[in-house]
Write a structure and sequence with these properties.
Length: about 170
């Protein structure tokens, strides 16, 4: 008898199907209860509203970063540039302080880390958190934005691998 949970095949198929939806890659940053920076790699990020200025991020309910956001009541979205795969891999590790040792960043006035070399930084106050199955839909009210003046290309994620723009 298979020991696979009944939902496993559907989850794998859903992940494979949605993997075809190419996305940018972000690192969501916030501040832990001890004042230390926290961050997680996330592709489930979307704009939500222009007036008021809202965006959303979907985070696994087990995410250490989600817990920090709930406490700090703020977070920042860092949109990664082509060539920043190492940052994406680094922040896909779970809640280890060591992941910040080699990372260059400064801070928004909110305290949220702003990663050096990111294409865009969007600093948000926590507006709301809604439950969506095994994830939480984290809604941010945009406080400050910064964008790359050089128009460098983005890091993309597609079918489980990193990619870049082929046609520009
Ligand atoms: C390319 C990529 C995209 C990811 N997107 C998300 C996402 O949108 N939401 C999420 O909860 N986890 C996502 N993850 C997984 C988290 O980065 C990973 O579980 C991380 O260890 C969570 O760290 P934390 O517990 O310290 O917050 C993604 C990972 C990768 C590599």
């Amino acid at each position: 008898m298979s020991t696979e949970p009944a939902y496993a095949p559907a989850a794998n198929l859903l992940r494979r199907a949605l993997g075809h939806f190419a996305t940018g890659v972000t690192v969501i940053t916030s501040v832990g209860p001890d004042g230390e920076p926290v961050g997680t790699t996330a592709t489930a990020v979307a704009s939500l509203s222009l007036d008021p200025a809202l965006l959303l991020v979907c985070l696994d309910w087990r995410s250490a970063t989600l817990g920090a956001i709930a406490g700090h009541r703020a977070f920042a979205v860092n949109v990664l540039a082509h060539g920043q795969e190492a940052l994406s891999i680094n922040f896909a590790r779970r809640g280890e302080a060591a992941m910040w040792a080699e990372v260059a960043y400064d801070r928004w006035p909110s305290g949220n880390p702003r990663l050096e070399g990111a294409l865009a930084g969007i600093d948000c106050a926590l507006e709301d958190v809604l439950t969506g199955g095994d994830h939480e839909i984290v809604i941010g009210r945009v406080r400050e934005v910064g964008t790359d003046p050089q128009g460098r290309p983005p890091l993309l994620h597609w079918c489980g691998r990193y990619a870049g723009l082929e046609h520009r």
